[in-house]
Write a structure and sequence with these properties.
2 copies of one chain form a homodimer.
Chain A lengths: L5 H16 L9 H11 L4 H4 E3 L3 H10 L3 E4 L2 H6 L2 H6 L3 E4 L4 H10 L3 H10 L5 E5 L3 H12 L7 E4 L7 H10 L4 E4 L6 H15 L7
Parallel strand pairs in A: 2-3, 2-4, 4-5, 5-6
Antiparallel strand pairs in A: 1-6
């Protein structure tokens, strides 16, 4: 098998994805996000399950270009976000999951570290992008914090995965009047979260071909 | 919605997965791995696509208990592997993807960093577990290195995802006489790779309930 350059592989993958999507019409603005998620998962269900709030792509590009603080609910999602693209946009990425105070507080309250880490995020005063790829408890806590006027993210990427409260937590976020990208249903994941953020970052600041 | 403790959520998720698998009979040894991958992806296709070489679970548990060097093809897979479980088994985890020499060599040779990082892994003299969740080029290079007698991993977790050479690269690895767990077809990912490794680590050394 011939080994190709990374960008050649990516371009060929996107061609295959476009071909297999066939004559399906995707929203032009949302298309790069949908295709990148399919590229990351090889799962075409995302063409149906990703839900975009009105104008979210244009708003996201603007937010990222202005430099936002991106907070993820897992180290994995943080690891998957392209750091060169983050730097080009003047953004920063954080995750509080390995913070020892967060772990202690979660244990004391009988909740998850992900939920507590959303409270830590709410204390940040910069424009916030909240990225949840794993824990529905993070989305539920975020929803509570929004209802209590304790935080107002500029963008929510809500794609936790799983079987307990996952579907419901995403429906809560979609009802908020905040720009959001959500994967309806059980599916999602840290890889999907990172793919969505990367697609938006690449729209905000195109990549060098060697990266 | 009630927020539950992490282990309660996980236990309830596994109950739902077992129920939805219905009367399907899974190999008892492989079951914890299959269920953890479904837990991570909410994708039941993995009950069909995961291919286990003969005796791979018993062999993996033995290898991990003896302390192995686990090398991943992405920072994301490394981030997803439970570090407490790694430490309990006396293992270590490495990833060479952010190594600047690896990047330079990949650019010079017109190949991927993932392929070059497999050559770095081949230089390690400890018992090796190779974990590929993203790049088929890593699996192809690994296959070449095995054929050239330059490396002989104790275990290969081969679950790259995508559209170009992914299916083929996994078939190559399954033909090697090396213990392997592979996700046949296009699907896989860093999250799937980490889930498989974690399932094996938890079998090798059971978790503290609070972790």
């Amino acid at each position: 098998m011939e080994i190709m350059r990374p960008m050649e592989i990516e371009n060929k993958s996107f061609e295959i994805i476009s071909r297999e999507l066939g004559d399906r019409v995707l929203d032009k603005n949302c298309e790069p996000v949908i295709k990148r998620v399919i590229h990351t998962t090889a799962d075409f269900e995302y063409a149906d399950s990703l839900v975009f709030s009105e104008g979210v792509i244009e708003k996201s590009v603007e937010i990222l270009k202005a430099g936002a603080c991106i907070v993820t609910d897992t180290q994995m999602a943080m690891a998957g976000i392209n750091k060169a693209a983050v730097a080009r946009c003047g953004c920063e990425v954080m995750c509080f999951m390995s913070n020892s105070e967060v772990a202690e507080q979660a244990l004391a309250e009988g909740t998850t570290r992900a939920a507590i880490s959303m409270r830590k995020a709410a204390e940040i005063e910069k424009p916030l992008v909240i990225v949840v790829g794993n824990a529905p408890t993070a989305l539920i806590e975020l929803n509570n914090l929004i209802n209590e006027d304790k935080v107002k993210p500029k963008l929510i990427v809500g794609v936790p995965v799983g079987f307990v409260n996952v579907v419901e937590s995403k429906e809560l976020i979609m009802k908020q009047n905040i720009p959001s990208i959500v994967a309806r249903g059980r599916k999602g994941g840290s890889n999907v979260a990172a793919a969505i953020v990367n697609a938006l970052l690449y729209m905000a600041s195109p990549r060098d071909i060697n990266q």
